Amino acid sequence: MSLLRDDALSTAFDHAARTYDRLTAANPGYHAHLRRSARRLGLPAGGAGLRLLDLGCGTGASTAALLRVAPRAEIVAADASRGMLDQAEAKPWPPNVTFVHAPAEGLREAGVDGPFDAVLAAYLLRNVSDPDAVLTSVRTLLAPGGRLAVHEYTLSGRPLDRVVWSAVCRGVVLPAGRALGDGDLYRHLLRSVVDFDTADACAERVRRAGFTYVRVLPMPGWQTGIVHTVLAAAPVGRARLAHSGAESVR
Length: 250
Prior knowledge:
By secondary structure, the chain is of the alpha/beta class. The protein has a single domain (6-157, 196-249), classed as Vaccinia Virus protein VP39 (Rossmann fold), CATH 3.40.50.150. 41% of the residues lie in helices and 20% in strands. It contains eight helices and seven strands, in the order ααβαβαββαβαααββ. A seven-stranded mixed sheet has the order 3-2-1-4-5-7-6, with helices on both faces. Helix 1 (6-25) packs parallel to helix 4 (82-89) and helix 6 (159-179) packs antiparallel against helix 7.
């Protein structure tokens, strides 16, 4: 099958939204890994005085991860799928969390504007039609020295990791997705990861978009070599670099 894009992908997520949390709960490490990527942003003082963007928030798992590490920050969470957002908004949230229905390519049109002090983009880039344009847009939304964490299925490039990913998808994820009536979405998941960047290629993509201090960090457990955090910072002037906090993402 061809990859799902734009409205077709949003529609598939809308359909899967009610059962999505059930499947992710069965994924060992899913929520812990999101929290790890959020911690890797190195946000100080529980996020006090900071403004954060959760880009591609889905049903709110990544939002909860940000909230866990930065409970005092203002958090704006955006997603293109109305169904996924409905599931997120139905959960209890403090008043410093706001949800916005917007695709990653159309944030400003939906009233989402910077500056943000940090952005978490979880399981997003391989799902957009033009990841380079999205990264460039994210960079313009960040304050100078603002931090980016791309949390993504980005294979290491080792043949074993590709084999493990394909085996888990074909043996576990696809049968579960078909049983729930969402086979197209989870076939997309399998192919989108295999067709997307390796971890190093994703880091290079982030560099090309104008980010600095780019670093790739793996996850522990069975997803080592499969899920990575790509950390980066928006550029700053030379005089401000020592005070930007960008060094902490190296």
